[in-house]
Amino acid sequence: MSSRCGIAFEVFVMDKAAATIKIEDDRTGLSIETLKRAIKDNLFYIQGVFPEIASKTDWYMALAYTVRDRLMHHWIVTTQNYLKRDARLVAYLSAEFLVGPHLMNNLINLDILDKVGQAVKELGLDLPELVEQEEEPGLGNGGLGRLAACYMDSLATLQIPAIGYGIRYEFGIFDQKIDNGWQVEVTDQWLRLGNPWEIARSERTMEVKFGGHTESYTDDKGGYRVRWIPDQVVNGIPCDTPVLGYRMGNANTLRLWKAVAPESFDFQAFNVGDYVGSVHEKMRSETISKVLYPNDTATQGKQLRLEQQFFFVSCSLQDLLQLHMREQKCVDNFHEHVVIQLNDTHPSVGVAELMRLLVDEFDLPWDTAWKITRNTFAYTNHTLMPEALERWPLEIFEELLPRHAEIIFEINRRFLDEVRAKFPGDEARVRRMSLIDEDGGRFVRMAHLACVGAQKINGVAELHSELLKKHTLHDFYELWPDKFLNVTNGVTPRRFMLVSNPKLTDLITEKIGENWVLHTDELKELEQYAKDKSFCDQWRAIKRDNKRELANRIKDQTGIVVNPESLFDIQVKRMHEYKRQHLNILHAVTLYNRIKSDSKFVSTPRAIMFGGKAAPGYFMAKLIIKLINSVGEVINNDPAIGDRLKVVFIPDFNVKRAQHIYPAADLSEQISTAGTEASGTGNMKFALNGALTIGTLDGANIEIRDRVGAENFFLFGKTEKEIEQLKNGGYHPRDYYEKDAELKQAIDMIGSGQFSDGDPVLFHPIVDSLLASDPYFVLADYRSYVDCQTQVDKAFRDTDDWTRKSILNVARMGNFSSDRSIREYCQNIWHVDPIEVTLDDDDED
Predict the structure, then answer these.
(1) Using one digit for the tens of pLDDT, what is the confidence trace for 568-577?
(2) What is the pTM of this model?
(3) I want to staple 689 with a disulfide (CB 3.0 to 4.6 A). Which of 92, 178, 478, 662 is the partner?
């Protein structure tokens, strides 16, 4: 009998007391035979194919549904437990959730990897091949979205009641192709074959308003009220994905909103032949959740980004209020039962939207609503650069959100009265702190709105948090010093060790047990093996295997042959000038010149690898990608160089590819200008997988260096204070160029056309920027960086010592688990406790 009709399969299980027969359901059973039966059932009943004609994608989908069945009960029981316990809920609002593929993560967290692997094998299939069929979910771009995903993993693992809210982007950011060295953006159709992990809940659709105007009126009690009359309404459909804790009974929810039109088809327009007009409203509404981060260089792009932010925030707040009212029946204590974390400024319009909902929809007095709002939100800042702090032209904001503009003006009026009372006569401070920026136009300052509306404001690394207080948000710190605190970022060891580096995971577990996965401070026990020859040999063998696998992938993807025995020197992250990929390529050119000019020059064979996407409208970042590929084209095809130096750009960097890159790295490039990177998490992922870091004293590099030991970290570059002094004293980058022969040679080669088929114009924007202004002090740090790379070269030749340093890096990285970060949020900001979820014995196998 099919499992869709009832109980499918009987297996015999020996009980402690006596031999008994246990009936196992195809949806929950974990015996090999039951898993095989379930996979075949899902292939037939969901995919609609039989084994002889099934594709690898069909088998992947059948397996994914089989695994989802087994975590579904965890998910439902978790929700029931949270409701019974009246738990305070953490709502994590983020424009991105770079979750990565689900299948392997869920197999590990359910602790069924071996059983499923055996079941798949007995079906004549290969589990790694099926895992490769899963598309990368196009829900994020860089560190911000990956941090949100790590935090969702840790929240579930630590059994914290939580829900993540964002947007279900239909096409993600973009797939990156490289054509003649240039980045080409291709539509990311990650949903084209379906998504077995999500469940759409149309019955929980939310209504979101845009545009129109407001009307004031007097209610039946004589109170002043405002009514918003929109000119567009968009519906938001929640699509839920379970986020399972590691070997725990609980699963939290990632709820992403899909935009749809209330009426998707205008029959009257169709009847008169206006076929495009008949679906106009559908297209207009659904555009909101089409693409992550549309190009906002044009006004239309700015408006769409603001629409996206308000759309998912409004849906989420309405959802939270409905959930709260269903259980509590009273909105006055909303802040006691819900805490909302704003992941950067993208969701900060939520401060105004919660006020609108409380005042306009729930008829609360302003002061009551403001008390609830200020005690509900907390704000994480992710940038130190004032120019990167989000702000919206007031004209666009008022047109799109007229009621919220009024609310923000009222918040601002009351807030500035508070500022004047604390700092009488300081009108310059008032202008700096105002929610409305009136310098060179009028803009709504979203970071200021978040600061005013939040109970706590945190940075994401110790240096970052100090610089927020000292510079970026200094005025707010002086007004509310108790609001500010630090929570250094972390990464989940489940994704970036257990999934990404299974061989190293097994070696570590063999030596110190498996408890380190939940308590990463226990990695410290590895230190005792740092001089154990047998252990070091195993460690090196695993690294060599990982490098060989990455080299094979690079050859398949780019055609470039990389020697696995060379030093894998890797920089993968978003393409941005402050991350200084161009400093790295200057070193590559310098190394090339040294090899070419001196036949006796001794250097370790090195493969310098890059990966990362540039925003579609970011010309300089895209030109740097072209420069990397152009330099690589020359170096990689120079017969005099051979395997001594390779330069590789790995296209379409994402979580799926990162899982093969971090474990293979020897050297992690963390070379941003001191005082520009908020924290970084790539630095943590590399170090956790045994790569040594070359970096500046920036972001979390400082804390990593403190933990792993200065002798196990390659430090270069000017400090944040020295950079500040250069800025204040007048920085002249051309002086560095004129005084350093190697630097001059490298820049002149780039500017002369040697790496651009003789075209002397192509890379002039980069050369001109470096020589004229050099906003990120590339030339000031060049010599220190190149000399430090010489130290790296020498250190790598001492294989035993490098291995020891690699082991110590992993052993001392326990503090950088996202579990530690979430514990700090729970204790210092959210004030929430774990809720243990235990499945009934009958529900466990």
Answers:
(1) 999 999 999 9
(2) 0.94
(3) 662
Half-sphere exposure of 80 (CA within 13 A, CB side): 10
User: Residue 357 carries which DSSP code?
Assistant: I
> Following DSSP, what letter does each residue of 1-14 receive, concatenated?
--TTSS--EEEEEE
Active site residue 685: yes
DSSP designation for 697? S
Q: What is the pLDDT of residue 272?
A: 55
pLDDT grade for 838, boundaries at 50, 70 and 90: confident
Residue type, 163: I
Q: Write down the catalytic residue from 626, 685, 705, 805.
A: 685
**Sign of the torsion angle spanned by Cα atoms 740, 746, 749, 750:** negative
Closest CA to 166 of 241, 102, 75: 241
CA distance 324 to 1: 43
Spell out the residues 6+ positions from residue 151 whose beta carbon is closer than 8 angstroms to its own: 92, 818, 821, 822
| In the predicted structure, residue 20 carries a pLDDT above the cut 50 | no
Q: 288-330 pLDDT, tens per residue?
A: 998 887 777 788 889 999 999 999 999 999 999 999 999 888 9
Give me the chain's average pLDDT, please. Answer: 93
Of the listed 37, 168, 579, 613, which one is catalytic? 579
Q: What is the bridge-based pairing of β-strands 206-210 and 645-650? A: unpaired
- pLDDT tens by residue, 54-71: 999 999 999 999 999 999
- What DSSP character marks residue 221? T
| Active-site pick, 302, 574, 626, 718 | 574
pLDDT the model gives residue 12: 37
What is d(CA 251, CA 282) in angstroms, rounded to the nearest whole number? 34
Packing angle of the helix pair 619-636, 581-597 (nearest 10 deg): 20
Assess whether 579 carries a catalytic annotation. yes
Distance CA 9, CA 3 (A): 8
Say which range, 298-302, 618-622, 838-842, has the weakest mean pLDDT. Answer: 838-842
Give the chain's length.
845
Span 513-529, mean pLDDT? 98
Looking at residue 435, the DSSP 8-state letter turns out to be: S
The residues facing 251 across adjacent strands are 244
Return the DSSP state at 592: H
**Residue written as tokens 């602790």?**
111
Instruction: Give the HSE-up count for residue 308: Cα atoms under 13 Å, Cβ half-sphere.
Output: 27
Cβ-contact 61, 135 below 8 angstroms: no
**66 closest CA partner among 48, 41, 98, 86:** 41
Residue appearing with tokens 């780039």: 750
Q: What is the token pair recorded at 480?
A: 């509310």
In the residue annotation, 382 being an active-site residue is answered as: yes
**Separation of alpha carbons 554 and 563, rounded Å:** 11
Of 255, 335, 573, 644, which one is the catalytic site residue?
Answer: 573
Torsion of CA 261, 264, 269, 273, to 10 degrees: 130
CA-closest candidate to residue 27, choices 14, 42, 15, 12: 42
